[in-house]
Every structure is written in C-alpha cells, then in structure tokens.
Design a protein that fits this description.
The protein has about 375 residues and is α/β, with parallel strands linked by helices. The protein has helices spanning about 5-10, 55-65, 75-85, 100-110, 125-135, 155-165, 175-180, 215-230, 235-245, 245-265, 285-290, 305-315, 365-380; strands at about 70-75, 95, 120, 140-145, 170, 190-195, 210, 270-275, 300-305, 320, 330-335, 355-360. The chain has 13 helices and twelve strands. The chain binds pyridoxal-5'-phosphate. Pyridoxal-5'-phosphate binds near residues 77, 147 and 194.
Length: about 375
C-alpha cells in the first residue's frame, strides 16, 4: 500500500467488506465458526478464542504499524506481558529497567519469582551495567521513555548488548507508540503495548498488543495466546482499531501541547523539577532526536513544596482529571507514588512521593495552562 504511517494507520485492516461494501470492519461477535467438513474451516476461523476476524484485523494493523510480520492481541497490556514471560523457563533471569511500570515489576517479582524466574532492575542508560546484568540473563525488558521519570533508553545500543549475550530484547513501547519510535527497526525482538493507552486513545478500552518479525517467537506467543486464553473481545479489538485511525494526529497534538505545558512549568515559580524528553538541554537530547519522532506527551514534575501540596494540587485541577492511566484525548493528572506506582512503594523502584505525572491530551493548550495556573492557587502552592 504505502509505508507512510498516517496512511497505513487509516487504511490497514480496513478493506471494504466484499459482500456489503461496508467501509468499517464488522464487529464479528461469533464465538464459533461453521466448518464445511471436519477441519474444513473458512479462512482458518474455528473458535473465537483461537482466532476472530475483528481481532485479526487489529493484529494485522499493529504488525503493519510496527513494521512487523506478526501482531498478537491480548485482553490487557499486562496479559501481553504475562504472555511474554511465558517464553521464560524456571531458572531464567530477566533484566528490567529500574523505573519499569509498577504492574510489570509486580508481575515479575511477585508472581514469576514463585516459578523460579529472577528479575533484576538496572538503570538501562548505563550500558556497562546492562552488559554486567545481562551475563547469563535470558531477556531484557526496556521501557522508553520510562514511567514516570521519562528517562530515554537507547534501544539499538541495549539490543546490541543483549544480542551479544544471547538475550531477547523486549520493548514496552506504550509511551512512544509506533508513531514516535519503531523498536523492531532498532533491533528489538518483540514490541509490546498497553493498547489501553494511546493506541485505543479514548479511555474506553483495556487491551494489549505484541508485534514481532521473529517467526519462532510469534508461533510460541500464538500458542500461548490460545492455550492461556487472555484474548480481547471483538468489540474491544474494534475500539482499538478505530483508535489507531487517528493515532498520528492525536500524537502530534498531544506532543505539541506537552511542549507548551513542560516549558510553562519549567518557568513557573514553585516548581522544583520538570521531566520531559523534549527540553533542549535534556542530557539525552541526541538520542531523543534519533529515536523519537517527537518527545512524547507525558510530563512529570515536582513542586518546590511538600507532598501534601502535591496531593492538594492533583485534586485541584478541573480539565486535568485525577485518574490513573494515560494516552487518551483528555488530559489526566496523578500522583504515581500513591496511585500507579503504589505496587513498587518501598522497593528499589519507588518514585519520589511528591512527583506529579501529567498525560497531556488534545485540548486547547491555553486552557490546559489556565487549569494548571488555577490549581497552583487552589492548592495554596506559594510563589517561590
Ligand atoms: N505498560 C505500561 C508502560 C503501562 O503504563 C501499563 C498500564 O498503565 C501497562 C503496561 C499495563 O497495561 P494494562 O493496564 O492495559 O494492563
């Protein structure tokens, strides 16, 4: 068709229905499919957990957008994570980034540890530490930008080190999306998404996706997708597919708004620190430019005041809704230490208690700034 992202995102998996001419793929709810004789299926469809036309359309769309040969859909981002961990055996070691998503850490550390899989957290910006941690490890799990501190990890460099030591490279690209970064082109073996976030884009669906170019990994993942059964409903697949159609313009607008918000916060008195990969003096500026089309739409910051002030601040915004999750059209605000990252409290992955995370949406930037400004006043955060 084309390899231009915006066109692919609109058209892939959306061929008009040959029977009806419908421009939008049907939500095919059937749990089972008629066989013309024993084992004689139509186009391979047999049973809804194993395969489904709406799910297949979504899987082909994520494969196209990631430059992969296989896309595999799951009931949530963590179900996708769980299925990647099925690739490991008792005695294997997994290396993750030291501010990995709290739920990923919880699954690895609290569940898979019981099955003999050890997980080590490392600052993946330090390639010597990566090489040391990877000796004898089976898999490395990159998240970039990291959540919530927005460190940027050099996928090519880490994947090279991993290949030398025989480890698989997995990238959780939920924050970047294929519009900003294409991990498989940078040497990753698997790319994973919480489709709940930017890919769905409207806070109305929970889903997970994996894409790969590796036939053997794809076959094993497909086996477990069916065997373990954490599959998304056809309606959920349809919602994510619809979200993908506007991914490019939502990301453009969100990133533009995030730049306005981050630069405003950086200048605002009463703010101690702002994290955003797009700052011109960001220590990884060259990497950000090389690896990301735009610097992303998540911004985190710390007030000069204490944690209590941060709690008042997140409760005082009106357009930024106080809620977990990110990546939708509406702006969200949260306190990671007490919300999304509660599961890593008092571990090596704990985050600063007063850190505030913004998921910047696609509203008018001026309205977002006005909302933050009134929250400073409402929360009683003193001018410095
Ligand atoms: N990966 C990242 C980076 C996330 O932020 C999340 C959820 O917040 C997940 C994975 C898990 O996704 P889900 O909530 O769809 O299970």
């Amino acid at each position: 068709m084309t390899d231009r992202f915006e066109t692919l995102a609109v058209h892939v998996g959306a061929d008009p229905d040959p029977a009806t001419g419908a421009v939008v793929p049907a939500i095919q709810m059937s749990a089972t499919f008629k066989q013309d004789g024993v084992g004689q299926t139509r186009d391979g469809f047999e049973y809804g957990r194993t395969d489904n036309p709406t799910r297949r359309a979504l899987e082909s769309a994520i494969a196209a957008l990631e430059g992969a040969t296989h896309g595999i859909a799951y009931a949530s981002g963590l179900a996708a994570t769980q299925n990647v961990l099925y690739l490991l055996e008792p005695g294997d070691r997994l290396v993750v980034s030291d501010d990995v998503y709290g739920g990923t850490w919880r699954l690895a550390d609290k569940v898979w540890r019981r099955y003999g899989i050890q997980t080590d957290a490392v600052d993946l910006r330090d390639l010597d530490a990566v090489a040391a941690a990877l000796a004898g490890a089976r898999m490395i799990w990159i998240e970039t930008p990291t959540n919530p501190l927005l460190k940027v990890i050099d996928i090519s460099a880490v994947a090279r080190v991993a290949a030398t030591s025989g480890a698989l490279t997995v990238v959780d690209s939920t924050f970047a999306t294929p519009y900003l970064t294409r991990p498989l082109e940078l040497g990753a073996d698997l790319v994973l998404h919480s489709a709940t976030k930017y890919l769905g884009g409207h806070s109305d669906v929970i889903g997970g996706l994996i894409a790969t170019r590796n036939e053997e990994l794809a076959a094993t993942l497909r086996f477990h997708q069916n065997a373990a059964g954490a599959v998304p409903s056809p309606f959920d697949c349809w919602l994510v597919l619809r979200g993908l159609r506007t991914l490019a313009i939502r990301m453009e607008r969100g990133c533009t708004n995030a730049a306005v918000v981050a630069n405003w916060l950086e200048r605002r008195s009463g703010v101690a620190r702002v994290h955003w990969p797009g700052f011109s003096d960001h220590p990884q500026r060259d990497l950000v430019k090389r690896q990301m089309r735009l610097p992303g739409a998540i911004v985190s910051f710390e007030l000069a005041a204490d944690e209590a002030a941060a709690r008042r601040f997140v409760a005082a915004t009106r357009l930024f809704t106080l809620a977990e999750s990110l990546g939708a059209v509406e702006s969200l605000i949260e306190l990671p230490a007490a919300m999304t990252h509660l599961s890593v409290a008092e571990s090596a992955l704990s985050v600063p208690p007063g850190l505030i995370r913004l998921s910047v949406g696609i509203e008018a930037a001026d309205d977002l700034i006005s909302d933050l400004e009134q929250a400073f006043a409402a929360a009683g955060v003193a001018e410095a």
